Amino acid sequence: MQAGAATAKRIRVVVAKPGLDGHDRGAKIIARALRDAGMEVIYTGLHQTPEQIVETVIQEDADAVGLSVLSGAHMTLVPRVVKLLHDQGVDDVLVTVGGTIPDDDIPELKRLGVAGVFTPGATTDSIIEFIRTAVQQRAPQG
């Protein structure tokens, strides 16, 4: 493999809807935008448990996971996903969250290990750029 081939690897993103929230239009829009930007997207569908999401991240060898939470359960579900990833030794996956996240909760989510939080009004371009840049910064050099 040539040195440049490793850098051309497509970014793999799991887009997940944890919990009982049944509204997935936004998650599907983000999944499509990420695909259109050249990323490989695995959409888990509705009503996923944190355990199911982490299993998918591991099985798919994902670079990033985007959690879409509109139900208000983000302070329960997101920390659980982050903890399960850590417990499995998966510390190199970028975790992002999107949805109706109150501004007051964002610092705590970031303290727990969430790299980016995208609230209503965030553009698909800003999400794509954030994931691209953050995954490239995490990639092993050499």
Structural class determined from secondary elements: alpha/beta
The proportion of strand residues reads 15-25%
The run of helices and strands is: HEHEHEHEHEH
Q: Looking at this structure, what is the CATH superfamily?
A: Cobalamin-binding domain
Q: Could you describe the largest sheet, including whether it forms a barrel?
A: 5 strands, parallel
Total separate domains? 1
**Sheet with most strands: strand arrangement:** 2-1-3-4-5
Q: What's the architecture, going by CATH?
A: 3-Layer(aba) Sandwich
Rg from Cα: 14 Å
- Give the number of DSSP strands: 5
Q: Label the overall shape.
A: globular
Helical content band? 40-55%
Keywords for this entry:
about 140 residues, alpha/beta, Rossmann fold, five-stranded parallel beta sheet, about 15% strand
